[in-house]
Design brief:
8% strand; five-stranded mixed β-sheet; alpha/beta; Glutaredoxin; Serine Threonine Protein Phosphatase 5, Tetratricopeptide repeat; 3 domains; 338 residues; 13 helices; 49% helix
Length: 338
């Protein structure tokens, strides 16, 4: 991948990202104290730089005593932000001055992060200034938004997104952070009293059902959300994920081994191939799982082929439609279909 500084990254439609196993943040940690960085642009000079809560945006460092809620991410302060993610989630917006969409998204993120009263910090990463970060996150388009929680990357989205979608994702991010013991605040008592904006009712019902281990009820809530708003990409991805979890919940370790044996012995057994593809994707062997179904589709015709194709599209949603592995599988699918 060439440097984003030398090759503009194209805009993209909003898609959930999947970064499992893809990023090693340690490669960007400071190995020694860097030379002093040039002073960042002032808030008046930088698009969308009005700092929330009156804090000075664009600080080149992350001071323990008075941290702004927006920081311009540089090679010099990135490790400070990674360490800060043990206290509060750090949302990183990768943007570029040549992309009006990314400038607009940055403004929206600043406004939204401010409403969480210190429970989130926004890191604005200009990919022309810090191309190593764009390379580490395998950025294919700007804008791209990811988060860091306890030093680990958490996928958010790639491409533009509306304010309601972003708020829903930030609310989910806080829940993920809380589940991992990250419940701090940089905003004092006011932040402690403030809670995240509520999820849409059906999304909340799905989340509560997942917490209770009732994946069927979660799927029902997501289906109803899609009936009301077919363009709800979060509900579509959520439905694919809970349906996968429901299928896997029914398998014991012994059943899983028997299924793999059956799939190896009978490559055209639809149920066996679908089951092993589920196991592969859930176990992190994404390319194997997707390739298995593409191969089945290439060998078979009629209703079984269509069933496998639909399951493959569902697994694309589980992995993340912006994932490079999904893009490769889509190309392979097109080849066997056409």
């Amino acid at each position: 991948m060439s440097s984003p500084a030398s090759r503009p990254v194209p805009p993209a439609a909003a898609n959930p990202l999947n970064l499992r196993g893809a990023i090693d943040l340690s490669s960007l940690k400071q190995r020694s104290a860097p030379p002093a960085a040039a002073a960042p642009a002032s808030a008046a000079e930088r698009p969308g730089a009005a700092a929330p809560g009156g804090a000075e945006a664009g600080s080149g460092s992350v001071d323990a005593g008075q941290r702004p809620l927006r920081v311009d991410v540089t090679e010099g302060n990135f490790q400070d932000l990674v360490e800060l993610s043990a206290q509060v989630p750090v949302v990183i917006a990768l943007w570029a001055t040549y992309s009006p969409e990314s400038v607009q998204l940055l403004e929206t993120l600043e406004r939204l992060v401010d409403t969480y009263a210190g429970r989130l910090v926004l890191g604005a990463a200009d990919i022309d200034v810090f191309p190593q970060l764009a390379q580490a996150f395998q950025v294919q388009a700007v804008p791209t938004a990811v988060a860091v929680v306890k030093g680990q990357p958490v996928p958010l989205f790639q491409g533009g997104a509306d304010e309601a979608q972003i708020r829903s994702l930030l609310d989910e991010l806080l829940k993920v952070a809380a589940a991992n013991g990250v419940t701090g605040s940089l905003g004092g008592a006011a932040a402690e009293e403030a809670g995240p904006a509520p999820l849409p009712p059906l999304h909340q019902a799905a989340y509560d059902a997942i917490e209770a281990g009732d994946y069927d009820a979660a799927a029902t809530a997501y289906r109803q959300a899609l009936n009301e708003m077919p363009s709800d990409s979060l509900a579509k991805a959520g439905l694919a994920q809970v349906e996968l979890m429901a299928r896997l919940q029914k398998l014991s370790a012994q059943d899983s081994e028997a299924l793999r044996t059956l799939a190896a012995d009978e490559p055209d057994n639809l149920d066996a191939q679908l089951g092993v593809a589920d196991l592969d994707v859930a176990g992190g062997h994404v390319e194997d799982g997707l390739a298995r179904l593409v191969s089945f589709i290439g060998r078979n015709f009629g209703p079984e082929r269509e069933t496998a194709r639909i399951r493959l599209l569902e697994l694309f949603e589980v992995v993340g439609t912006g994932d490079e592995r999904v893009s490769k599988a889509r190309q392979a699918l097109a080849r066997v279909l056409f």
